[in-house]
Design a protein that fits this description.
By secondary structure, this protein is α+β, with helices and mostly antiparallel strands. Helix content is 15%, strand content 45%. It has helices at 45-57, 117-127, and strands spanning 2-11, 14-19, 32-33, 35-38, 60-74, 80-91, 101-106, 133-140, 143-149, 152-153. A hairpin with a 2-residue loop joins strand 1 (2-11) and strand 2 (14-19). Keywords: Hydrolase, Magnesium, Metal-binding.
Length: 159
C-alpha cells in the first residue's frame, strides 16, 4: 500500500482540475482530478501536499484544510491511502506539468467532467462541507463495486 495526497484548489468559485492526458501508463488516464501525488520517504501528508502542489502548479500553499482520507482497493492496482485537502490560500505563478492539462472549472460544472465514480462521492462530501471523513472505495477494473463512509456501507454508490 502506498500513500498520496490530493488537493482541490479553489479560486473565485472554481477548482483547479487536472485533465490527465499527458502521462503514459496513467491509471487516471482521461480522468479529471485535483492536484497531488505520492509521498516521498518520511514525508508527512502536509509536506507531500505542499511539495506536490508546488511541483505540479507552481503555487505555494499558505493554508489548507485536511478534509479526509480515502482508501482505494482495486483488483488491478496497488491499494492506496489518499489524504484529501482543499485550499484557497495560495500564491505564485502557475506553470504546466507533464501529468495533464490544468483548467479552472466552475465548481457547479465539475460533476459534468469525466470523473471516477468514487471521486463523485468524495466531491459531494466536500461540497456539503462534511467534516473530516474516512471513505473506502473498492474497484473491480474501472467499476466502483463498494463504498464505505466512516465504516458504514453506502447502499447507493452515487450518493
Amino acid at each position: 500500500m502506498f500513500s498520496t495526497t490530493l488537493c482541490y484548489i479553489e479560486k473565485e468559485g472554481r477548482w483547479l482540475m487536472l485533465h490527465r492526458i499527458r502521462k503514459k501508463n496513467d491509471l487516471n488516464e482521461g480522468k479529471w482530478i485535483g492536484v497531488g501525488g505520492k509521498f516521498l520517504e518520511s514525508e508527512s501528508p502536509e509536506e507531500c501536499l505542499c511539495r506536490e502542489v508546488q511541483e505540479e502548479t507552481g503555487y505555494l500553499l499558505h493554508s489548507w484544510q485536511y478534509r479526509g482520507i480515502i482508501t482505494f482497493v482495486s483488483d488491478r492496482w496497488e491499494s492506496e491511502h489518499m489524504h484529501l485537502f482543499t485550499s484557497s490560500d495560495f500564491s505564485g505563478e502557475y506553470h504546466s506539468c507533464d501529468e495533464g492539462v490544468a483548467e479552472w472549472i466552475p465548481i457547479e460544472k465539475v460533476m459534468d467532467l469525466n470523473l471516477w465514480e468514487g471521486d463523485r462521492i468524495f466531491l459531494k462530501l466536500l461540497l456539503s462541507a462534511v467534516p473530516f471523513f474516512s471513505l473506502k472505495l473498492v474497484y473491480e477494473g474501472d467499476m466502483l463495486v463498494q463504498a464505505m463512509l466512516n465504516g458504514k456501507r453506502l447502499e447507493s454508490l452515487s450518493s
